[in-house]
Amino acid sequence: MKIKLTINGVPRETEITPDEKLLGLLRREGYFGVKFGCGRGECGVCTVLLDGRAVNSCITFAAQAHNRSVTTVEGIGTPDNLHPIQEAILDHGAAQCGYCTPGIICLARDFLDENPDPTEEQVRDALKGNLCRCTGYQKYVEAILDAAGRMRKLSGDSG
Amino acid sequence: MSKPKFRSVGHNQRKLDGVALVTGKARYVDDIELRGMLYAKILRSPHAHARIVEIDVREARSLPGVCAVLTYQDVPRIQYTTAGQGPPEPSPKDTFVLDDKMRFVGDRVAAVAAKTPQIAEAALKMIKVEYEVLPAVLNMEHAMDPDAPKVHEIPSANGISIPERNIAAQVEVTDGDPGRGFAEADLVVENLYRVGYVHASHTEPHICITYLDETGRLVVRTSTQVPFHVRRIIAPLVGRPIGQIRVIKPRIGGAFGAKQEVLLEPLCALLTLKTGCPVRLQLTREEVFVSSRTRHPQVLRCKVGVNKDGIIAATQLDVLANTGAYGSHALTVQCNTGSKTLPLYRTLQYREGVNNVHFKATAVYTNLPVAGAIRGYGAPQGYFALDTTMDEIAHRLGMDPIEFRLKNLIREGDSPALLEQLGEGREGVKQVLKSCGLRECIRRGRAEIGWDEKRARRDQGPVKRGVGVAVLQQGSGIPGIDMGAVTIKLNEDGSFNLLAGATDLGTGSDTILAQIAAEVLGTDADKFSVLSSDTDLTPFDTGAYASSTTYITGMAAKKAAGKVRKMILDRAARMLSERGEDLVLEDGQVRGRKESVSLGEVCSDALYQHDQEQIMATASHISYDSPPPFSAHFADVTVDTETGRVKVLEYIVAVDCGTAINPQMAEGQTLGGIQMGLGYALSEEYIFDDRGRMLNPRFMDYKIFSAADMPRIKVILVDTFEPTGPFGAKSVSEIPTNGPAPAIANAIFHAVGVRLREVPFTPERVLAALKSRDT
Q1: Interface contact A16, partner B, CB < 8 A
Q2: Given B33, B285, B662, which is nearest A39 (Cβ)?
Q3: Which of B15, B25, B674 sits opposite A93 (nearest CB)?
Q4: Which end of chain A has fewer CB atoms surrounding its CB within 10 Å, N or C?
């Protein structure tokens, strides 16, 4: 079957099988920033945005993305134009192996869109579905709080 | 002491691969496309112990899209160890790529390569296997019984200690006169401690992709800590000389020891050689839990004798360890349970330099998942027993736990004789302690947590608070064994290539090596392109294990940079017509008394102008020292006496890693190690049914700490200078994992007066301990 969707702002038409997951579709299309960790929606490394909301792409059917917009980490910022969340993660030295990083960035993007001025506890609660074994999460939490400040400043400057 | 000023070392340099990591550009093993790649899947044993009577793969082979099916009949019958160590390998060679005997639920029966993962899965279901099910050893404490089933038959023994008794490995050492020490001690405390199976739980599952290059050489792209060991170990298994194999380590999604194992590479390569096609073999998360490697479960008997003035008279640690179905790291992990823990404390000395210490460890086979290397490497088990015992002695003597430890901890200049006897699988190397910030770690951690006030606190109500301490060391590389080599070359724009066999697993070692080299070469770390690791392109390294990379390979980077620096200055002296000793190399320039030249100009002169040569150098480094980093951990916890729930409110860790080459990364390593240690203490464990099948091989049921579960952690880096390390550095990566279990156990005792002697401290265990206290 064929579906239409937008990936990182680019309209696409692609052939899928009924049982195919969004994770498989995105990786097949070359979005390698989407990672496989458990295949059961338990670790969050496959997190992407579906119409702006964070989902585990390993348990989301590709068909569910029909006529919708998908954003992967590649669509959030690029090396020449980093998103404040990405900048903050670099400044805080939050990423180690980086395998969970794309999912955490997508999650944080959704979370900060909804909660522009969160508390530390809210950030920690939001992150609980994104497992990481390298970092103890602390520098990610600090980076996301920092990014929230940067984003508020940017939207304040432009508004 | 006046401290040297560094331009690169000691700064929070951004990771060199950081931008790639945060933008999804980083390429891990799976992030390539190869035309015609096949997907491999493994059929696994449903039985803990069984022999294949008959295996019929005809139907599977005839399924359209199936390109190869391998069973034990199709692979060379060569024994090897998956441990991923240097020769002579200290782990028994007890493993076949595929065998006709199954030794645990999840052992490899057969492998399929097919055009899609779905076809491969379907083919697995078509393989018909008739098993003779054998009695299984599912309890390590009965593995040595005379009538216990034998996990490995005698004829297949190859470095197994005593196969008739299921003993994979054993070690026993004595220093001084522990018998006399215990006899003369005023108080002897002896207890049993138990630790079970846990997993490293790296987020990237084990994965390997193999293919043939245009000349027919075998290329192995794999998520490994040990590319050079992989190349050497698989060569005989796949029937290719080492020179016909290339191993590439791209970005790695965490490893923590579990990817020191050479698990997937031989099978994946054999499928490529059989089909001529690229083959991808990735484990599912369930397979990672069940069939990769775990921390050795142990039963530890810890005995400490002490005089009434608080001086330790003798220590003894007896360990029974479960290596599971295969003996990967069976000897060396157990050696470390003693060698990384016992030398931390002095004992009463009857002769100078000799302590009264006895250590014995026996690693037995069972028909359960296989243990191996994992961050801490035996030390987390040992510290749970030893440090908790020290806490108990302090309590029994009526001493403050910190004061008791301070009386007995080692000091600079000490040379624990035990380490001369007890190396990693062989005799050790004499060590003299040259840097020790332990007392400063304790002093600062104690102040930060408010130890004195909190120890005096008394609570009302059902939720009790307590504070506990643990004191730790580790090592920095394996003395006399670990070797790292680095090549550095200069480019026309003043940039450098740094080629290292050392494997950055996410640890940040690429950046650390660049910072060290940049310091020597008077430039910035981001002037370096670091390539790690590729056995065709980078010099040798034993690999990322034993907390070795910063200390060992870092020194190789420093030496290689020193050689390059000399070449640069020699040429610049000729270019500037000045004397070498008048030149200064800094900010990418060689400054003479009159003029200066840039590094790029020096390189261009070398490549195109005069006496042409490539400015480059390679250096290797080994060390007969393995300087311990030191650490003090402090946990402030609550224990709910009605539910048994333990909650960590605050966690302080002070660590002496010598010079922190990159303080932010040293903190990051520490925070991650604490997360793993918190799971070990409180939530992580394998649960088995009565036939040896793991019941919880998924993150929903095997609980690692999430961001919401973590306490606030304060990391204090205590600066010391290790004279044998690069710019004073020691290791930092493994030591934090050792602390949470004993620190929390000691805090629980302070809160409610019961000793937890088995991890994890689940509500059930805490309630049971409270109940036994009250009855």
Answers
A1: no
A2: B285
A3: B15
A4: C
Report the pLDDT value the prediction gives residue B458, as an integer from 0 to 100: 81
A38:B19 CB<8 A = no
Does the predicted interface ipTM exceed a cut of 0.95?
Answer: yes
Say if residues B302 and B190 touch (Cβ distance below 8 Å): yes
Q: Chain B neighbours among A 28-87 (CB < 8 Å)?
A: 30-40, 42-43, 45, 72-74, 77-79, 82, 86
Q: Is there a contact between A133 and B204 if contact means CB atoms under 8 Å apart?
A: no
Among residues of chain B, what percentage have pLDDT more than 70?
Answer: 99
- The minimal CB distance from A96 to the residues B14, B506, B713 is found for B506
Q: How far is CA A131 from each of CA A111, B204, B379, B665, rounded to the nearest angstrom? A: 16, 11, 25, 19
Chain A residue at shortest CA distance from B666 = A93
Residue B352: which pLDDT band, with cuts at 50, 70 and 90?
confident
Residue ranges covered by each domain of chain B = 38-134+203-254+259-291, 298-478+625-774, 482-621
Which structure tokens are listed for B147? Answer: 């009538």
Query: Could you give the domains of chain A?
Result: 2-76 (3.10.20.30), 84-158 (1.10.150.120)
Which DSSP string corresponds to B172-194? EEEES-HHHHHHH-SEEEEEEEE
Out of B22, B26, B706, the one facing A131 most closely (by C-beta) is: B706
Whether the pLDDT of residue B732 is over 90: the answer is yes
Express each pLDDT in B82-106 by its tens digit.
999 999 999 999 999 999 999 999 9
| Domains B38-134+203-254+259-291 and B482-621 equal at CATH topology level | no
Contact A133 B671 (CB under 8 A): no
| The amino acid at A148 | A
At the topology level of CATH, where does B38-134+203-254+259-291 sit? Aldehyde Oxidoreductase; domain 3 (3.90.1170)
What pLDDT shows up at residue B155?
65
Residue B494, C-beta contacts closer than 8 angstroms, at least 6 positions apart: B523, B527, B588, B598, B599, B600, B603
Closest by CA position to B631, among listed B467, B449, B438, B444: B438
Residue-wise pLDDT for B7-35, tens only, equals 999 999 999 999 999 999 999 999 999 99
Q: Quick check: A139 contacting B, CB < 8 Å?
A: yes
The per-residue pLDDT for B1 is 41
- Answer yes or no: is pLDDT of A104 > 80: yes
**Domain B298-478+625-774 falls under CATH 3.40.630.30:** no
- How many interface pairs between A and B have CB atoms less than 8 angstroms apart? 185
pLDDT bin (cut points 50, 70, 90) of residue B2 is very low
User: Which CATH number is correct for B482-621, 3.30.9.100, 2.40.50.140, 3.40.50.970, 3.30.365.10?
Assistant: 3.30.365.10
Cα separation, B245 vs B763, in Å, equals 51
